[in-house]
């Protein structure tokens, strides 16, 4: 039921990259949730208001008033509205509709897929993190489930269920949380049962220049003691050294190796959210320019630094997995607040270590665990509400792009394909499902998302045929065998299918994926047919030989 | 007067290429009578010489009122300067029905330098990200790929969309000219995209047309000796064909492996196909009598298999590539061939082949079993209950 609020006719839709410079003429409709353009051949273009990142009115031309809409999924649409007055109205409406003041105004709260209540509830129960931790092998003799945060009293942005070393008592937990930015003390992110090593995550210590905290030091000792294979552990600060040092002046900073016994400290510089935001902006400027020369494109790409950042994220993940796989050492990862770069590095690291996360379901679990439950601020980073523009940053996009690079290097190692990654990205921004709304688990509970909205995961699982990689080989890497990507610079490619997803004229016009999927289907069907025919044949032979044999 | 130099005859045998009308109903397009010609530059010289025979020849190609396009692969400046050394361009007054377009394409020394720089950059594994993109940009190889594809598209568009005749030439007609005409044919003509058709194209447009392979493909990218005549035009052509295969993975009957083999053999070969600089030299050296042909070897039933594209499905339409920088990729299979293991990509490709062709036919296939059982009522299939 789309309640249409505005209709404008004779609007032109320009195609940025079409060689024929053609434009389509049609009618523009605005509803409460979408913008809809229907052209003269009845083709529909739907744009979700929540997907809109920016609307711009360009100077009046002879053909009308141009309106450029940039979406969060990198789609850019260029309309030309014949009358300036109409253009102005649409512009204002879109500005209003794309800004939301309250979560309840988001699409997720009105989206109705016509399921009954039990289906909705089951949808939310599809991914169970307690099951996941069990699969990893915790709790065990060294690691236990702590209920210290069950009312979010210790840390508001952490989940209720936290796994800590058995020797980490409640006073240690409380003390350590007081010494960590935003109370995000060291907890388990991933447990590698073969190596008995752990990936832990936290935020920066409030060490300033010289402050110490006995409980925090005990916490780290507990983590390294929980690893019987190795006496030392790594602490990875994913910030550039300069930034981390600057934080000391603000009473924060990083761990001093002198104070923490048995730790090896390592900076693996990944830039902060502001640098990433600006990097993406520059990339989009390049990709949005028509008629670019190869040199302008390459130098634009280089100036944005975007691929350099992707490489930095993957390099950090590689450092992490080497520590675990080669040295059997536990690793504690943090950045400033432990919800951006930390999420990237921990989740990518686990993906490289554990083939489960390379399956469709496993990837959903990974995102639920390291991104959603551990409080990556989806709402702020993806601008779900009309908030602080300085909080917006493509951190999750970079994670997906890193995974995409891995699927390109290891075409047979992943059960899912590029379309899966793109669809998840689409829905992180669409706010059609409740999973990514809000900034942390506590907020999601307060909003009663599980009762009022639907989960994305069953929706994706229903369509999983589209997301399967036909080349997937489950035996590619046996369980818990490492993926070792080559991160030399030339391995990183521009992700055309993400940044030009909607620019059809740029793409290979023939889809190898579709063909192979069809072939795969056909082969399976043919094999099935052969089995049936053979069975049928047996029956008929027996009838022929034995006249008393009944066909029933 | 018409040039009688050994390097190229003016005009050389016109290469005829059937144009195709824009796809409408999906049925195979009828052959339209457009022609694509290639030649070398007219020897107008500083005194604006004319050649009656040349004008008549070009005149007969066009019917009354028809237009033709001349695509000159030199810049307008360079073409003008060529007059000083006896060459030049077709003056508008003498060739009124022909419209001249300049699309400068890099060749010679510059192209070889570009190639060398690219290979250097690819070999440097210590390079960091920004410097890699920097070096990729500064070697300009991908720009040359884009320019070649664009010009070939232009020639193809003139024939297909404008339904006009096209004449392509540069200076000698043995380098960028052949690049454009050969590439345009791959774009326009589905028969050039079959394995046999492509071999025929190479024979016609590169070997017989007199591309000086011996001079151009002497030492490749690693040699310290920077030979004056060395230039990787043929590699540029192969790279452009590879770009087409990425954009249209079902439309070429041959695979990347063929392109790599051709690249190898152009520079060093056990076969005589790419020897010498032109047909005259090949006759003098008795190449046909004393060597084996690469095609003869490639076309053997066992060998041929290896060069086929399992995804091939004949496509009667014209294939128009996107020449946006985002669509042009670095030919990793060639430039990283010895630098980086392609094991996972090779395995994935083998998997694709397996999926498309079905598994190795076992000695006793299910189909055979079934037909045996049907003809012999007493035979029992293996998995009988």
Automatic annotation (TrEMBL), chain A:
Residues 123-499 form the Myotubularin phosphatase domain. The active site is at 335 (phosphocysteine intermediate). One of its GO terms (cellular component) is nuclear envelope. SUPFAM superfamilies: (Phosphotyrosine protein) phosphatases II, PH domain-like. One of its GO terms (biological process) is phosphatidylinositol dephosphorylation. One of its GO terms (molecular function) is phosphatidylinositol-3-phosphate phosphatase activity. Substrate binds at residues 272-273, 335-341. It comes from the Eukaryota. Pfam families: Myotub-related (PF06602), PH-GRAM_MTMR6-like (PF21098). Keywords: Hydrolase, Lipid metabolism. Belongs to the protein-tyrosine phosphatase family. Non-receptor class myotubularin subfamily. This is Myotubularin related protein 6. It comes from Athene cunicularia (Burrowing owl). The gene is MTMR6.
UniProtKB/TrEMBL annotation, chain B:
GO terms for molecular function: protein phosphatase binding. GO terms for cellular component: cytoplasm. CDD domains: PTP-MTMR9 (cd14536). Residues 1-50, 359-385 are annotated as: Disordered. InterPro entries: Myotubularin, Myotubularin-like_Pase_dom, Prot-tyrosine_phosphatase-like. Residues 19-32 have a biased composition (Pro residues). Residues 1-18 have a biased composition (Low complexity). Residues 1-335 form the Myotubularin phosphatase domain. Transmembrane segments: none annotated. It comes from the Eukaryota. GO terms for biological process: negative regulation of autophagy; phosphatidylinositol dephosphorylation. Belongs to the protein-tyrosine phosphatase family. Non-receptor class myotubularin subfamily. PANTHER family: MYOTUBULARIN PHOSPHATASE DOMAIN-CONTAINING PROTEIN (PTHR10807:SF52), MYOTUBULARIN-RELATED (PTHR10807). This is Myotubularin phosphatase domain-containing protein. It comes from Athene cunicularia (Burrowing owl).
